[in-house]
Every structure is written in structure tokens, then in C-alpha cells.
Amino acid sequence: MLLVASLLLKALAIPLLARVAWVDFTTQKISNGIVLLLLGLGLGSLLLVAVQSGSWWDMGLSVAAGLLLFVVFFPFWALRKVGAGDVKLMAVMPLLVGGAGLVVFSLLLMVFAVAMAVVVVNPFLLPAGAFRVYVQHMDRKGVVPFGVPISIAAICSIVFHIVSRVTGYGGIEKFL
User: Fold this and answer.
1) Which tens digits make up the pLDDT trace of 10-52?
2) Measured between alpha carbons, how far is 118 from 47 in angstroms, rounded to an integer?
């Protein structure tokens, strides 16, 4: 029962992450409220798994990874290379995807970050409406919406985790 509740909390994060991606794409802002909601959902999910399994390893690993990511990304914010919302969102992601999902999340983040870089270099690859919105904001702000690949990678990681738990297939987590 606790596992089902944990998966439900992860599933509730998917629409929030989709909103983060869209708002970051259109306005280059990530609200603190949504980041806090994602933090709460992630901690709640990890807590339920820890209570069910009797092991706090996954929660400890996730918290350590979140703190490490915050420390690593903070200087990039200070140098104005990434936004504060991106740093906070990145620090929350290990708590949301869980320690076991960090490998999947990291691989997907690399793929989507490269895809975002390709779009930044060649924005004509976007559909016409998205291209128009993107060019208007790039001309005005000159920033890359890094929250988009973070959110998409997290959504895919969560879906992968839910599907692997529901179907009983451990996926990549079996090999770790």
C-alpha cells in the first residue's frame, strides 16, 4: 500500500514538471512554490519507500545528491550562467526521482540537454508557434531555459520508474 502511495506522489509531480517546462520555456522563470511542491512530493515519496523497506539508504543518497548538485550549480548561478530557479530545480530532482532513478535521470538529462543545445544553435527545428515564442524571449533575455531538459528528463525518469514498478520489471535498476 505504501508503494502505491509513493508511486502516486511521483505521478502527481508529472503535471507540475510539465508546467515548469512550459513556464520556463516561455518566461525563463521557475517559481519557488512549484519547486517547494516538488520537494514535498519527492520527500513524501522517499519517506513512504523508507518506511516500507525499513532502509533509509535511498533517502540519504537522494539528499546527498541534491546537496551536491546545489553546491556544484551555485557558482554557475553566481556567474550568471544559469538561473536561480534552475539551481533549485536541479537540487530537488534527486529527491523526486529517488536514488535508484539517478542513473536514468542523468542519462536522460544529458540527452535532453544536448537536444536543447541543438535547438539553441538552430531554432528553426522548432515548430512555428514554439519558434516564435522562443525567438521573442531569446531576443529579450538571451538565456537558455535549462528547466525544460531538467523537467523532461525527470518526467521520463518518473514514468520509467512507475512502469517498472507496476510491471514488475526492475529495468536498469536491476543491474546497479
Assistant:
1) 999 999 999 999 998 888 889 999 999 999 999 999 999 899 8
2) 38
Q: Residue 38: in which H helix or E strand, if any?
A: helix 32-53
The rounded distance, in Å, linking the Cα atoms of 35 and 146 is: 14
- Cβ–Cβ under 8 Å, residues 112 and 151: no
Which residues are within 8 A (CB) of 78 and not within 5 positions of it... i.e. 6 or more apart?
none
27 vs 115: CA distance, rounded Å: 20
In degrees and rounded to multiples of 5, residue 127 shows phi and psi of: -60, 160
Q: Who's near 46: CB < 8 A, 6+ residues apart?
A: 6, 58, 59, 62, 95, 98
Can you tell me whether residue 24 is helix, strand or coil?
Answer: helix
Q: What is the spatial distance between Cα 16 and Cα 30, in angstroms, rounded to a whole number?
A: 11
C-alpha cell at 53: 523497506
Contact 165, 49 (CB under 8 A): no
Sign of CA dihedral 93, 96, 97, 102: positive
Helices (H) then strands (E): counts for the chain: 7, 0
CA distance 86 to 166: 31
Residue 130 buriedness (CB in 10 A; 0-12 / 13-18 / 19+): middle
pTM for the model: 0.85
